[in-house]
Amino acid sequence: MESALSLRAVTKRFGPITAVEDFSLEVVRGTIFALLGPNGAGKTTIIRILTTLLRPTSGTALVEGFDVQHEGKRVRRLIGVVPQENNLDRYLTARENLLLQARLHGMAPAESRRRIDELLELVGLVGRQHDFPDTFSGGMQRRLVVARALVHRPRVLFLDEPTTGLDPQSRRAVWEYIESLKDSMTIFLTTHYMDEADALCDRIVIMDHGRALVDGTAARLKERMAHAHVYELQFRANAERYEAMLGGFPFVRSLRRTGDTFRLCLAGEESLKPLMDAIGTDDIRKLCLLEPSLEDVFIELTGREVRE
User: Fold this and answer.
1) Model pLDDT for residues 254-285, shown as the tens digit of each residue
2) Which of 61, 204, 209, 235 has the lowest CB atom count within 10 Å?
3) 0.85 cut: is pTM over it?
């Protein structure tokens, strides 16, 4: 199958800092691909290289067969980009922002009107199309940025944290539409919402410190943790005290709390006995074994520490 995106031994350095190191990747046309990693892993650097905003220090990057360094103009005609920030033109209305994008890509007036009407309906901004973005909420601005990237029907769509700030209804509407585009374009996304990547993506790469760590489908990546033991543990009381205890055990690989319920990944089956010996059973309401999630895989590979 033909590749829509190809990176071959790409390295990008910013002075003494290496953001991406010897990174290679092939993304097949017509797929939804996710690049996951903690803050500072190199995800946005790779997107900026593929969208011609950065030149790699070494290596080559191709979009639909065109070299991003030497054929940047042709690449830009083929791509749509949703950046992390809401970079709308504040002096244009919502409709005018979309119309400007259509004109930049040489779309005919009749075609652009139909396309803009369709997209405004999609993102729920028909009633606000003549208002300026500064009067919108953050979520509304985000929806408009997504719509703008789709105006010219790109062959490759780059989504850098596309649903950040969206309410659940808007997230669902955007992703249902994006999923419907799968047969007509290639979609490359980064996201911190593991449920999105798990449910929607054909293939996932998790990276850290500028290098790829694992590559495969969500199901295959979760299989790598079949040896791990993920438990849901619920307490009747004293959740704060138990949270401090659980976080201090070396055999607890990851820990997430929701109210009085904890999701924790243990290093192995042998860890269960010392865990129970340490916390006792007086305050335990429920303890059950769970199937590992994509988030568990992510934490196992990249660690629990918060990144800046």
Assistant:
1) 888 888 888 888 877 788 888 888 888 888 88
2) 209
3) no
